[in-house]
Design a protein that fits this description.
Layout lengths: L5 H18 L7 H19 L4 H10 L7 H15 L5 H14 L6 H15 L7 H13 L2 H15 L7 H16 L7 H17 L3 H14 L3 H13 L3 H10 L4
Helix pairs in contact: 1-2, 3-4, 4-5, 5-6, 5-7, 6-7, 7-8, 7-9, 8-9, 9-10, 10-11, 11-12, 12-13
């Protein structure tokens, strides 16, 4: 979306005032300056009033999905995306259709079906040298759709690129580290316990930087579990409950029954 440039607008206002003053000696009504002002307004007005496109709105809705339980919301966004696909060839429309279709059927399709849906998306994104925010969001969702071995292999490639983002997209970077750690954890640390520990430590570092202490505690719980520090894990879960973050607390309790 093109944003209005205030300096551009102010320039025309100042120029109009000056020309009105200058031309008033020759044109009492300041006709030339008035016409210039109206022309400037005609150019600027569409910029000032421009609204987010349907694509932007759909992408924003897609990025607001918090978990796969929001099936109704995902189906609504998928319907909008398919309508947009009829009029647009933009890659993101195709991407989110594939991702949403897979997320909606993540519990009903087999692994091969899910992989076939989203593999073309990863094949294209893997050729992009610098990912933007939407790319990272899509990639983070891909991790939960692929089988865990593919997800962790892809994750290693993603990690090598994340350092270039610095302070940008900190929470998305955290989501990727945290999710990769969780995927490895729930598959008996198949890629090695040290990988899980490394990813969780990076997640803790990022969430501290972002001042997201809820997510920080969640990663601390996971790290404590990996290190078999069960009392520490329980204490972190109690903090979540004390802060009123019952969803995270209950979720942790369901995953780790002894918390």
């Amino acid at each position: 979306m093109i944003a209005a440039d205030p300096d551009f607008f102010n320039f025309f206002v100042i120029l109009t005032v000056f020309l009105n003053f200058f031309l008033s000696f020759h044109f009492p009504l300041g006709l030339g300056a008035t016409l210039l002002y109206l022309a400037a307004c005609a150019c600027i007005s569409p910029i000032l009033s421009e609204k987010p496109s349907k694509l932007e709105n759909t992408l924003n809705e897609f990025e607001s999905i918090s978990d796969t339980s929001e099936v109704k919301k995902m189906k609504s966004i998928l319907k909008k995306a398919r309508q947009l696909e009829e009029k647009s060839t933009l890659r993101y429309i195709h991407y989110i259709i594939c991702i949403l279709d897979a997320l909606i059927h993540v519990d009903t399709y087999n692994c091969d079906q899910l992989t076939n849906l989203v593999k073309p998306v990863w094949n294209e994104l893997s050729t992009v040298s610098v990912w933007n925010h939407t790319d990272l969001f899509i990639i983070n969702n891909l991790l939960y759709i692929f089988d865990f071995q593919t997800a962790l292999r892809i994750g290693k490639k993603i990690i090598t690129k994340l350092n270039q983002y610095g302070d940008n997209n900190v929470l998305l970077q955290n989501a990727i580290y945290s999710n990769l750690a969780f995927i490895n954890m729930t598959n008996s640390n198949a890629f090695g316990k040290s990988i899980t520990i490394n990813y969780l430590q990076k997640s803790i570092e990022l969430t501290k930087h972002a001042h997201r202490y809820d997510l920080l505690l969640l990663s601390k719980i996971r790290l404590a579990m990996v290190l078999q520090q069960y009392e520490k894990a329980k204490k972190c879960a109690q903090y979540l409950r004390a802060w009123g973050l019952m969803t995270l607390s209950i979720w942790s309790t369901k995953i780790f029954l002894f918390l």
